[in-house]
Amino acid sequence: MAINLKVASVESREQRLGTIINWDGKASDLADQSGFSRDGCGARCGISGGKVPRICELESPFTQGTGCSEQIVENQASHIRDAVLIHHAPIGCSALHASTSASYRKGLAARDMPVADAISISTNLGDSDMVYGGVEKLRDAIHKAWERHHPKAIFIATSCATGIIGDDVESVTKACEEELGIPVVPVFCEGFKSNHWSSGFDAIQHGILRHIVRKAPRRKQDDLINLFVLSGADVYTDMLGQLGLRANFVVNLATVEGLEQMSEAAASTSFCYTFATYLGAALEREFGVPQIKAPQPFGFAGTDGWLRAIGQALNRQEQVEQYIQREHERIGPRVEKLRTELRGLKGFVVMGPGYAHGIIGILRELGITVEGSVAYHHDPIYDSPDTERDTLGFMLDSYGDIEHLSISNGQSYRFFNMLKRVNPDFIIFRHSALGSVINRLGLPVIPLEADASFPVGYQGLVNIGEEILAVLAQRKFHEDLAAHTTLPYKASWLAEQDPFALARRVGA
Amino acid sequence: MVLVPLKKRAETKPGRSDLAGPIEQARYVCSLGAMQSAAAIPGVIPITHCGPGCVSKQYRSLVYANGYQGGGRSGAGVAPSTNASQREVIFGGGDRLRELIEATLDILDADLFVVVTGCISDLVGDDVGSVVRDFQKRDVPIVYAETGGFRGNNFIGHDVVTRAIIDQLGGEPDHATQRGLVNLWSLLPYQNTFWRGDLAEIKRVLEGIGLKVNVLFGPSSHGLAEWRTIPQAQFNLVLSPWLGLSTARHLEAKYGQPFLHVPVIPIGAKQTGEFLREVGAFAGLPGADVEKFIKAEEKEYYDYLLSFSEFYSERRSAMPTRAAVIGDAAYVLALTKFLVRQLGFIPARQIITDNTPGEHRDAIRDAFRAIDHDVSTEVDFIEDGYNVHTLLRQTDFGHKPPILFGTSWERTITKELDGFLVEVGFPVSHEVVISRSNVGYRGALTLIERIYSTIVSRSG
């Protein structure tokens, strides 16, 4: 569970954090069972040396395709602007290259950067490589990557196939690193090694920490703050600029230099602690860059807390208070109006846990009822045990309980039963494949896929509120569709009240 | 390239694919992608025995990031998956697969389930056949295909899945031949962005001359009911340069069915008329019926073309004249034929990226050399996007901006060449495709609209 940069691969989330992907109940019960003790991080906290507490998990015999760590690594590594990613794998692991490239192009355009393709190369392993090994093809691909693109770093993502045949990826990358004089970073992210794809964030962050971050910082940059973001518009530069701070955006759309200088920053933070947990904790522990101890920047409560913690850590309390006041004055009247316009609505949130906790906060601040939510997984604790960063706890303390909080790694077959329990007016979600399932039920959906920054900060309240008003108009499309849709599920399953009935039957 | 007399040229490249080399910019997926061939049959749902990310990678790429086609009833997150973990790698995944199939029968409604496997199962050596046979013995409609990603691309996987359904479907096949019934083996579902519309148009024109068509995939198919009549067909029609040939040969051996191989998918009146006459003759249809249909279709087609010609003639000098076509063998051949024979483009470069098996390459080269009675051109087989673009940079496109028929991977090079791009193959990220077609009579007109809208929309 510990952070150990001496070894090549990081443990999976379920090993390190006790992460689960199947659970159903009240949010407060989940918080009680989690490692973040509601009375402070005590004996049950895994990080302080004890055993990671295990939450009882439901295991279903029926499962639908989820996602793997390697997908996350692809999305991160090929979005580093002057790096190249190599998939050491059969061609199928590169299937999403075009999609990843399309989102990279959109991401660049959103930040006014020149549009280009994301570069990745498959070692294209076949039958005979499974017998004789693929390391020579890997060596060849690394050299091709260098000759063709002269990147500042090369990332190697391993695959299920190379993990099983036991290719010695480390030796090849080490030799190539010495030969080429740039970081050649092996990222161990075999899909079968973790039941949740968020382990992929940790895998690439581990590689970056070991091979790229400057061990000996050249200078301390007192106004630089590492901001762990996903692709999306830049809502931070202006915000932090008003506080006299600069943002070092990582990992999406960063440069290798941006990654190197992480150890020189004055602090690190993120809008979503789920994906940022490992990098933030390791930078604090191994490089002395403190993490901001605060809630995530969603809604008035979260954003106030986040900014104040930054102000305190970087000695900018006065600027922060002035900024908060200006923003409350700017946003306040519009949010008041939105509360009237949105009165009586019920929302349902489906996404990764940290993000979901933040979005639920926004909806509740807008006066929208939230009785149910799906988080794709749950981390009972993050890599650093600061209770200030307990996103579920903050949500409960600030906005109260959620009756039906389901932990479900996708599994769209459960959505019908889950939604029936709470009858929402709209759904707000991330990870689009699920949207196409949900919209067959006649409910309008708000995807937050393209721009992860959309709900962040004070402006995020307005953005989400306006988006809900817009999506209500789209009910017509969904209702029309639902009236002409047959679902592939058996009537007996659709009539089932308990989305976790199958799992409970097995457990009984 | 240019207009040259019809004669054989020396080989320009060895007949070897670059399969062995690395691939930048994937233009196909792995064998497991053939889960979508199963899902393309109405009423069929794939059950996937593979790692946790495999389904979403194959699905999201082929079905979503490729014209945003969508997967319909069995699409999106429906497909069951074992999401194989460490446990299945170490102890084998047979039991987990058995458990998943049992649970699937409780949850999902399908006429047929097709079990497909990924790298993990095929590498650890799960006996998937024995698991599935147990269910077959219980009369569960289920078949299996081993499609581990390292075995080849989704074209190869498609063959494996097709063969699995034909051979394992069970029941007593009725062999009594239905005259006029034809099994159509053509485009690869989902890989080809326009497969639904194209198959519908091919079916329409074949029915127009009096045939009954087992289209087998897509919304115009009747699903398993159709598959069960495969043995009764008078013949198999392989309408593609190579995909489907092995299936036709298999059916020839299994049921003694003859097959007709037409490598060029017809686009436009000229090619479609020739195609229908060839099929009609092979099927023994009355020539008068065939001619009557062709005449009626041509009347409509050429009425439209005549109107379009006002624009074509007036704006011709501002239009690109040289074209490059990059993609799967089927579309590269069909489009080049149409562009040269009916729109009068000069073929500047043709690149096939589907890793066409070596034994079919010479025949395809010959087809390009005889692209028209007075035009001959060459074709390259390349799968690595970097090499594709290097070759495009070396191509002589003459004095005007070229037009490229390719994929989203050609967006950057098109800008570099100051040309025009029509996205026609996987991956298509900048087009939304629902029922649009590029083939036959109606598809050709739509394609013409697309080509010239691309060009004219840039002006002003």
TrEMBL record, chain A:
Coiled coil: none annotated. Residues 78-472 form the Nitrogenase/oxidoreductase component domain. Gene3D superfamilies: Nitrogenase molybdenum iron protein domain. One of its GO terms (molecular function) is oxidoreductase activity. InterPro entries: Nase/OxRdtase_comp1, NifE-like. Pfam families: Oxidored_nitro. PANTHER family: NITROGENASE IRON-MOLYBDENUM COFACTOR BIOSYNTHESIS PROTEIN NIFE (PTHR42956:SF1). This is Nitrogenase (Molybdenum-iron) alpha chain. The lineage of its organism: Bacteria, Pseudomonadati, Pseudomonadota, Alphaproteobacteria, Hyphomicrobiales.
Automatic annotation (TrEMBL), chain B:
Keywords: Oxidoreductase. It comes from Blastochloris viridis (Rhodopseudomonas viridis). It is an enzyme of class 1 (oxidoreductase). CDD domains: Nitrogenase_VnfN_like. This is Nitrogenase molybdenum-iron protein beta chain. Residues 32-455 form the Nitrogenase/oxidoreductase component domain. SUPFAM superfamilies: Helical backbone' metal receptor. GO terms for molecular function: nitrogenase activity. The gene is nifK_2. Its EC number is 1.18.6.1.
